[in-house]
Fold Disulfide-bond oxidoreductase YfcG.
Amino acid sequence: MTQEIIRVHNVPYSRGFRVLWLLEELGLSYDVVNYKIGDRSMREGGLDALSPATRVPAIEIGDLVMAESGAIVQHLIETHGPQFGRPVGDPERPAFLQWLHYSETMASLVEQLNLNHVFLRPPAKPSAIVIKLNTARLRQSLAGMEARLGNHDFLLPGGFSGADIMMGFNLYAVPFYVDCSEFPKLLAYRKRLEARPAYQTALAKEGPQEFYDRDFYPVPEE
Ligand SMILES: N[C@@H](CCC(=O)N[C@@H](CS)C(=O)NCC(=O)O)C(=O)O
């Protein structure tokens, strides 16, 4: 059977990475349309017709159009990769759903920090107090995860799942804002994610990282 045409609308090193990584895990072929935050491509490139909030990722799968990385990941798993999901009735399903969505609790904090540290341009000034608060909240979300990682390799005892893919983007970005040395389980978990061939292929296809211009962004003085 021929595969439907899949096209991912993406910004390199954004939440779109979750979708690209999953497509690699699934061995599906796909095209990528890349946009850049801050230039006119996102506003004028037709993305508004695909994504209600004009954000990435969005995906076209044949005639189907979807936005929201978590929904796309869940849909692709249900249609192409049940081994990466947990069906209704599976004892791991509640935890699967929790981690799938927890990744957005964390990603929204990363997004606030991206906005303040990376996107604001003079004369707009980043807010030291907003950065301080969001960094503390991000650290708290990591501590909560560290405490629950257990002794298994991935988030769920039953093995690698779409919830790990959702988290992979976060853990790529988090160390730019939080010193993770206090979270050894989380660091080891991140290494296991990065070791997956599909992760590496998806990352290589993103091209060089040009989003962050330094290794670490400390909380500024108030
Ligand atoms: N909850 C959405 C969030 C999508 C989102 O905010 N994407 C960011 C990139 S990671 C974006 O498109 N930002 C552009 C903007 O805010 O204008 C998802 O998970 O897909």
Q: What stands out?
A: Residues 93-119 form the longest helix (27 residues).
